[in-house]
Amino acid sequence: MHTGEQYHQFMLASPRNQLVRDRFQDMALNLLPPGASVLDFGAGTGIDAKTYAANGHPTFVYEPSEDQSGYLALHCREEIERKAIATVTSSLACRVHAVTANFAVFNHIPDQAGLFNDLARVVQPGGFVLASMLNPYYLGDARYRWWRANLLNLLRRGHYGIESESRIHRFTPGFVARAAAPHFQLERVTPRGLGMATQLYLFLLLRRR
Description:
Layout: H1 4-13, H2 15-31, E1 38-41, H3 47-54, E2 59-62, H4 66-75, H5 77-81, E3 85-87, E4 96-101, H6 112-119, E5 123-134, H7 145-149, H8 151-157, E6 159-161, E7 169-171, H9 173-180, E8 184-190, H10 195-198, E9 201-208
Parallel strand pairs: 1-2, 1-4, 2-3, 4-5
Antiparallel strand pairs: 5-9, 6-7, 8-9
Helix pairs in contact: 1-4, 6-9
């Protein structure tokens, strides 16, 4: 189990994770109108939140892990003091233009319909949810027995859970789109084509109706 500081340093030291983070942040910042507010859902140690705040976006952070939120308070101390970042103890405690969830946060939530029903109360009409989710089609996972054992579940139901401490789930974009309706419409999935087989993460953009 990582402490908040260990997780923070690991994420910053990993070129692979940094590449994913850079792409995710660029996409989020290009989508956000100037000065638009954002909820960083599952904010970890505040790496993304700090970037949003630095670009002029009032940022709320929701992080249920005490280790992660404790280090977030240190990493984002200056932004919190000047109220550029505000911590919330419930994801429903704010009203924002966008919700971002990086590094498979949504994969820990089996009730996707309930999740998007809650987020519909947070995201303003015309706003969006941007989530990076584990790619269920990633062929790099095909070497694992659990991936092969659940391939039919993925094709038939569009999702499956893995027996582990975290009970992490895999979802197809179509399953997420159906769970998000009628509040959100799936607008974009990145990458497409061969990237669907070679990239660990998918970026899903869902627009609030």
